[in-house]
Write a structure and sequence with these properties.
The complex is a heterodimer of chains A (about 425) and B (about 300).
Chain A lengths: L1 H15 L2 H26 L5 E7 L5 H11 L2 E7 L13 H10 L4 E5 L2 H5 L11 E3 L5 H26 L3 H8 L22 H29 L3 H5 L4 H33 L8 H28 L3 H27 L4 H7 L5 H9 L9 H27 L9 H9 L3
Parallel strand pairs in A: 1-2, 1-3
Antiparallel strand pairs in A: 3-4
Helix pairs in contact in A: 1-10, 3-6, 8-10, 8-11, 8-12, 8-14, 10-11, 10-15, 11-12, 11-14, 11-15, 12-13, 12-14, 15-16
Chain B lengths: L7 E10 L2 E11 L4 E5 L6 H8 L7 E6 L12 E4 L11 H10 L5 H14 L15 H13 L5 E5 L7 H16 L3 E6 L2 H7 L2 E6 L2 E7 H7 L4 E8 L11 E6 L3 E6 L5 H11 E9 L3 H14 L1
Helix pairs in contact in B: 2-3
Classes of the chains: A mainly alpha (about 425), B alpha/beta (about 300).
Chain lengths: ~425, ~300
């Protein structure tokens, strides 16, 4: 046991001392912080006013709409009254086409107000032209401003309908007000703080970096030792299984350090930011449990791959299907989070390689998974991790001393079935 | 400290790789306290045998014992192994790496620290203890590899081609270290394809060729077993003359100006000398025991002829 510890300690120290590790430790949360903060800063910054051209064929809506837009701010309004802006000129171009091109280039927004149908929000008659808000689809700014203009047109039309039907503006205001609000509660029936929709994804990303990212270190460390021919020396002191176990635990501790520092930093930051109840200690505990078991399983695969290959290129070829499999949970999470305790979500989160990611996503959503599922999934994960480590040890034992041609999958399969 | 039985024992051991049978039923014992040579040309099966001894390969059949039992994890600290393929952690610092290898052999830091320093001094690389291994020259790395092998104080040293690739000065440093350890009671098993090294060092030997033991015993026994005498001559041939068909000579190694002539068991040297004088100007004529090199050559040739 102490030899396993010695191997693990060397692996941990050698990897934690690298610049790559220190950079990852500091830069990753910094980068994530930037991704979260920068858009907020950008939104907060007063953006330049953009021209809006209102082409009005009704003669009645343009003025109140212009007033509404000016009130909202952020736009410079210009009104064009034209009875038929679709009429082509000598060069075969009409005003609407002209505006579409400019809008598409991001120079302006155009609002085209057609007649009767708009005013009454009636269905379009055959041949009638629709009213439109035209804008570019280039930036997140467009995605925000375009719909806001459409909403303003809607407001103005509603107001006009109300006026014509003799409905008072107080009634209109009441109609616009929401009747009820959605109240999310936790399993004790208490009104909880609304769960952050980001949290499940944050957990998945942390686990992905910790498990998939860090376990790659094992591939390179195994390959390096193999090319340095150090295995024969090591195997004269320890058994292949001790060696593999030590290496995996050492690198696991590297990832554990990262996750601990990151989530600790995250807790501190959210506490300072006044959102201390965003993550519970229990969630962090489960994160670590799922991380350790998930890591040991995936790392066994990685170390087996590394031992069977001689160059990074060979290893990458063998790893491509594994990496594809491991990226799946990120996409599956979207399905799972739509109905976190549905049948599909439950089944998917009990497939061992997905378990850490999907269970953590479910733990972070509301409502939480049924209590029995957490220990059950941890137990299943532990059993499959144990099996994975045993099988990997068989591949490792043969692979580390094999040089030259990389083995075929058939050959590796044979190694897996060979008993000690 | 030492065990009553043999330090290492092979009993009808076989090992096959695919269609190739590398070791075809070898048996021999290494007595405790001996300096034992495992001889053979490249591809004879030496490294495969040693790897089976170290439990890196499992034999297909037969039995391999180390210090009286099958190699296992508890035994590994009592053995020091220098593999043919040298391997060190290039990125680690010399002293840290030695401490690591010593720890996985079951020694603690307090035990190791003074021994690391003294071994590095002895190998002449004391000034490099805090440098990275990759900064060392090839010769220094080889000596460092030797320190890795002996640092934990093993009872049995297994050295696979320990002198390969070393310059004469470093070879002597290593040879002296091996001899010192042997004097202190360590059993040494080493393999080599250079017969002169075996002749200088070992007290007992086994010669393998094509996966089989062809010769074994002490150096004297082997020479006696192969009891043919040899004559070393230095000569200059007269024009048109050759050394072919000399009386009483069964084989020879001719090197232009010198030759080693193997005599038939009851051959007399006088007719030979007379015949030589007719054909050449003879500068030296010396009766000698055959060298291991000659013995090995003849045995290999006999085996290949079958």
């Amino acid at each position: 046991m102490s030899r396993v510890f010695d191997i693990a300690r060397r692996e941990y120290i050698e990897n934690v001392r690298t610049k790559a590790f220190l950079i990852g430790l500091v830069l990753t949360p910094l980068w994530m912080g930037l991704v979260l903060v920068v858009p907020k800063l950008m939104r907060g910054a007063k953006s330049e006013a953009k021209p809006v051209v209102i082409v009005d064929t009704t003669g009645v809506l343009a003025a109140p709409l212009a007033e509404r837009i000016r009130e909202a701010g952020g736009f410079e309004v210009e009104i064009e009254t034209d009875e038929d802006p679709w009429k082509k000129d000598a060069a075969d171009i009409n005003r609407i086409d002209e505006l579409r091109v400019k809008a598409g280039a991001g120079q302006l927004y155009a609002i085209v107000l057609t007649n009767s149908a708009l005013e009454k929000k009636a269905k379009l008659e055959r041949g009638e032209r629709a009213s439109e808000v035209i804008g570019a689809s280039r930036s997140s700014d467009d995605a925000f401003r375009g719909p806001s203009l459409a909403a303003m047109v809607n407001d103005v039309v509603n107001m006009r309908i109300a006026e014509q039907e003799g409905i008072g503006s107080d009634i209109l205001e009441r109609l616009a007000r929401p009747a009820v609000t959605y109240v999310p509660v936790d399993e004790k029936g208490e009104v909880g703080a609304p769960t952050s929709a980001v949290l499940p994804y944050l957990f998945i990303m942390l686990l992905f970096m910790g498990i998939v990212g860090i376990s790659q270190m094992l591939v390179s460390s195994t390959l390096e030792e193999k090319s340095n021919r150090v295995y024969e020396v090591l195997l004269s002191s320890v058994s292949p299984r001790q060696l593999m176990t030590g290496k995996i635990f050492g690198i696991c501790a590297v990832g554990f350090t990262l996750l601990l520092v990151w989530s600790g930093g995250g807790l501190l930051a959210s506490a300072l930011g006044g959102a201390s109840d965003l993550v519970s200690g229990r969630q962090i505990g489960l994160l670590m449990a799922y991380y350790v078991l998930g890591f040991l399983m995936i790392a066994s695969l990685m170390v087996a791959v590394g031992s069977a290959c001689n160059t990074l290129k060979e290893a990458q070829n063998l790893m491509a299907p594994i990496s594809a499999l491991l990226a799946l949970p990120i996409f599956l999470a979207m399905i799972v989070l739509r109905d976190p305790n549905g049948q599909l979500a439950t089944i998917l989160s009990f497939i061992p390689p997905f378990t850490p990611f999907l269970m953590m996503a479910r733990v972070a959503s509301v409502p939480e998974p049924p209590t029995w599922q957490i220990p059950a999934s941890l137990a299943l994960l532990a059993v499959s991790t144990w099996v994975a480590m045993r099988v990997a040890a068989r591949v490792f034992r043969t692979g580390v001393l094999l040089y030259g041609q990389p083995p075929s999958l058939k050959e590796i399969w044979r190694w897996m079935r060979t008993k000690d | 400290m030492s065990t009553a039985g043999p330090a290492a024992r092979f009993e009808d051991v076989r090992k096959r790789f695919g269609d190739f049978e590398a070791v075809k039923g070898i048996s021999f014992e290494v007595a405790p306290g001996s300096l034992f040579g495992l001889l053979g040309s490249n591809g004879a099966g030496k490294t495969t045998s040693i790897r089976m001894l170290m439990n890196i390969f499992k034999p297909d059949s037969g039995r391999v014992e180390v210090l009286g039992q099958t190699m296992d994890e508890d035994l590994k600290p009592r053995v020091g192994y220098l593999p043919e393929e040298r391997g060190l952690y290039k990125k680690m610092r010399v002293r840290e790496m030695l401490a690591f290898f010593g720890r996985i052999k079951g020694r603690d830091d307090a035990w190791l620290a003074p021994r690391i320093d003294s071994w590095l001094e002895r190998m002449g690389i004391g000034g490099w203890r805090d440098r990275r291994v990759e900064e060392l020259s090839k010769g220094m790395s080889q000596k460092l590899q030797f320190v890795v092998t002996v640092l934990h104080g093993p009872e049995l040293l297994v050295l696979d081609e320990p002198f390969a690739g070393l310059d004469p000065v470093n070879r002597d440093v290593l040879r002296d270290a091996v001899l010192d350890l042997h004097r202190e009671g360590t059993t040494v098993l080493f393999s080599t394809h250079v017969m002169e090294q075996a002749e200088q060092l070992c007290d007992r030997l086994v010669m393998i060729h094509r996966g089989r033991v062809r010769l074994s015993g002490s150096l004297d026994e082997v020479r006696r077993q192969q009891g043919r005498e040899a004559v070393h001559v230095a000569y200059r041939l007269r024009p048109g003359a050759t050394l072919d068909d000399l009386p009483g000579v069964v084989s020879m190694t001719a090197m232009g100006q010198e030759a080693e002539l193997q005599l038939a068991p009851d051959a007399e040297t006088e007719p030979l000398l007379r015949a030589l004088l007719e054909r050449a100007e003879v500068r030296r004529f010396e009766r000698k025991e055959p060298s291991l090199h000659e013995i090995f050559k003849r045995i290999a040739a006999e085996a290949d002829a079958v």
